[in-house]
Design goal:
The chain is an alpha/beta fold and 299 residues long. It has 11 helices and 11 strands. A hairpin with a 2-residue loop joins β1 and β2. The longest helix has 29 residues.
Length: 299
């Protein structure tokens, strides 16, 4: 399948209309029809059936579409890599991160990367860990830092760079600030702030409440920094990353005696990713984070 046929096939699958596909690709309708017929002749199968709703895939068409999407991703990654190489230091690197590592590590990492490659275009996409992993699988991002979710995608490479724990956090003005053990905490009547439930921390919060058989008023927030600010008012508590709040003078926390609450922070990228110089430098910077953590443990 050549690239032109690939684009025509994928566009027809996604638009379901021959005329819309032609308009989208800047081709004539007969040209689109020719490419589809040529593709069917090449594989010796019928790829589409037509009805009032437009062009729909046959069973074998669905199979071809699955692999064609992967070919498109590889082709896009190849074109980006070639363009980056041609432009030397004028290329780009697309980073992703879930909430906690985005706030803790990414500002310094991006600053260091920009110092080494001042003309490179750097972008950062902050989403939940599962959403970042999905974009890495589609090679829409070059690499990312994500909180452990309990599931690893086989097509992605995961490298642990740091540990983190979930703690019960609150303001230093909250009544809990004088309590040192969770067993002495009465959670009834408390307002629990949680990162959106699709995040790893949000999923844990929901599971933890169910296991503890607790019914609490919950407020879901998209930003971990917003959670930190809301805690400062002294009217709520949160299950949140220890690394995120341990240096905040206005916040306190209680640790749980549960080793399962320790999570890994991973550096993640696609196993088929071509590693240019900016990526390799970024990987070195991430490795320094791991080294610092290991030295602290050793000391």
């Amino acid at each position: 399948m050549n690239i032109q046929k690939l684009h025509v096939f994928l566009s027809l699958v996604e638009t379901k209309k021959m005329t819309q596909t032609a308009r989208l690709l800047g081709l004539s309708t007969p040209t689109v029809s020719f490419h589809i017929k040529s593709l069917e002749e090449e594989y010796g199968v019928k790829l589409f059936r037509t009805n009032a709703g437009g062009y729909k895939l046959t069973d074998v068409g669905e199979m071809l579409y699955h692999y064609a999407q992967q070919l498109r991703q590889v082709n896009q990654a190849m074109e980006k890599s070639v363009e980056d190489y041609k432009q030397g230091g004028h290329g780009s690197i697309m980073l992703g991160a879930s909430g906690v590592p985005a706030q803790i590590y990414m500002p310094k990492l991006i600053h260091q990367l920009a110092e080494r490659y001042p003309k490179i275009k750097v972008s950062l996409d902050v989403q939940t860990a599962p959403e970042i992993e999905k974009k890495l699988l589609l090679q829409e991002l070059d690499c990312g830092l994500v909180m452990e979710t309990g599931k690893k995608e086989p097509e992605l490479h995961y490298e642990s760079i740091a540990n983190d724990r979930i703690v019960l956090a609150f303001s230093t003005s909250h009544p809990f600030s004088s309590i040192r053990a969770f067993e002495k905490v009465d959670m009834r009547g408390q307002i629990l702030l949680v990162h959106r439930l699709s995040s790893s921390t949000g999923h844990f919060s929901e599971t933890w409440l169910r296991e503890q058989n607790l019914e609490m008023e919950m407020i879901q927030l998209d930003s971990v920094s917003t959670i930190s600010r809301m805690l400062s008012y002294g009217k709520s508590v949160a299950l949140i990353s220890k690394k995120l709040i341990e240096k905040e003078d206005h916040l306190a926390y209680i640790e749980f005696e549960n080793p399962e609450l320790e999570r890994q922070i991973y550096f993640v990228y696609h196993r088929n990713l071509w590693m240019g110089a900016p990526f390799m430098h970024f990987q070195e910077l991430v490795g320094e984070i791991k080294e610092v953590g290991e030295q602290r443990i050793a000391n």
